Amino acid sequence: MSEEDRNERVSDLFALIEQKFITESDNNGTIKTGTYVFVANPPPLNLQSATEHLDADSFFWGTAGQAIATEDKRVAMALAPVIFNLWPESLYVVVFNAHSPGKPILGKWLNYVLVSESHTESIQKIKPPEYTVITFDWGDLVGT
Q1: What is the pTM for the complete model shown?
Q2: Rounded to an integer, what distance in angstroms lies between the CA atom of residue 38 and that of residue 94?
Q3: 10-43 burial by CB neighbour count: b if 16+ within 10 A, else e?
């Protein structure tokens, strides 16, 4: 992906988040409280090393998932191009209208949002607060 394409995708991503994310705004019209979670599927082997310089929490969830979360929009905006550079097959960007409750609960929120097998009792899910999901497939926006 060219740098220009990557920058355009990042810009489109955050414009979508601002449009779709219904939340209390500050005087600048920006999201006041939110937890940004990036879920690459499958997780690239170098995901943690590529993002360790950023102030974000990398964690495992579900049976084989890996995610990176931050409450800081600037960090999320710095994470997005790094993750697009890793070129995952699918990328889910989930924004929760809440402060991060910590990795274990975030993982259960992701199970609720991203795991469709409701009959699987071994997967622990917790209904999250208001959220939005933006989906990319091979770098192209495919769903919101």
Answers
A1: 0.83
A2: 7
A3: beebbebbeeebebeeeeeeebeebbbbbbbbeb
The burial of 84, by beta-carbon neighbours within 10 Å (0-12 exposed, 13-18 middle, 19 or more buried), is given as buried
Where exactly are the structural domains of the chain? 3-143
Which residue is listed with tokens 């950023």? Answer: 54
pLDDT tens digits for range 100-112? 999 999 999 998 9
Interhelix angle 73-86/3-20, nearest 10 degrees = 130
Gap between the Cα atoms of 14 and 103, Å rounded: 23
Give the whole-angstrom CA distance, residue 118 versus residue 127.
13
> d(Cα 73, Cα 131) in Å, to the nearest integer?
15
User: Which portions of the chain are predicted below pLDDT 70?
Assistant: 21-33, 63-64, 87-88, 116-123, 138-139, 144
